[in-house]
Write a structure and sequence with these properties.
Length: about 260
């Protein structure tokens, strides 16, 4: 019996140790998971606090922690309607501050754009259309000019007035295809001035580009500069299915040279 009892005791000891190890591992995992949940909420909350402080709205951290604790324990000091009212009032103030800052930035960018346009129009070789579109002929082609309903194949480089490039098709090594009627007003007007084979530089006022809203890295109120090479032009239905619908703006995160409605 002793020979049998000893292995049984060893097996029982191993089983107990294994069970203890599993429980400890489970407890450790649960602890980590719980901490991760709290840390995730804290990171999100910290981001909100930092953003609001940047706009001049302070918080009392102790009260935030107290509110979190009360909510977890189901012991809120404010009912749901009161919570919504307080948060909505704060959101309204935050939005007003954001709008004021944005309007100030748009005004600053717009004034810089006006100054740039005034300076640029005085340069030799710059022509200005009735709409205010400015252009320079870098290479004069001999082909036909596109009509408004046409689709064109182009290489181009787009940049801000400070020289920041937001897209250059030469980097990708492939030209883009665009339907003029889907383009911003400056492109729609400007490309109709160009014979195929030409390269023009257009300086486009904000109202003919992305307006006061801007797009991607292009701020509201900004004039933009495009150097465009017109490679080809086609009538509707002539091998340009889908043109103008995928003209990406690279890192600008933009959907294309489309009208700002």
């Amino acid at each position: 019996m002793k020979m049998i009892a000893k292995p049984m005791m060893i097996s029982l000891a191993v089983a107990v140790c294994f069970s203890t190890s599993v429980v400890a591992k489970q407890e450790q995992t649960l602890s980590q998971e719980s901490y991760a949940i709290g840390a995730s909420l804290g990171k999100y909350l910290n981001g909100q606090i930092v953003t609001q402080k940047e706009f001049g709205l302070d918080v009392e951290l102790e009260q935030i922690v107290q509110g979190f604790t009360d909510a977890v324990n189901g012991d809120l000091k404010l009912d749901n309607d009161a919570l919504v009212d307080v948060l909505n009032a704060r959101a309204k103030v935050l939005n007003e501050v954001k709008k004021q800052r944005r309007d100030a930035l748009v005004a600053e960018v717009a004034q810089a754009s006006v100054d740039y346009l005034d300076e640029n129009r005085a340069k030799e070789g710059v022509s200005v259309t009735e709409s205010g579109l400015q252009y320079e002929v870098l290479v004069q082609g001999q082909g036909d000019k596109p009509a408004r309903e046409d689709a064109v194949t182009v290489h181009y480089k787009g940049q801000l007035i400070d020289g920041t490039v937001f897209q250059d098709t030469h980097e990708a090594g492939e030209p883009k295809q665009v339907a003029l009627i889907n383009s911003i007003a400056g492109w729609e007007e400007g490309l109709q001035l160009m014979p195929v084979g030409s390269t023009y530089r257009f300086t486009i006022p904000a109202e003919l580009a992305y307006g006061t809203e801007g797009m991607g890295v292009i701020p509201g109120g900004a004039a933009v500069v495009f150097e465009i090479e017109l490679i080809d032009s086609n009538k509707p239905g002539q091998s340009h299915q889908g043109m103008g619908m995928s003209m990406g703006m690279g890192n600008a995160g933009m959907s294309g040279m489309f009208h700002q409605k």
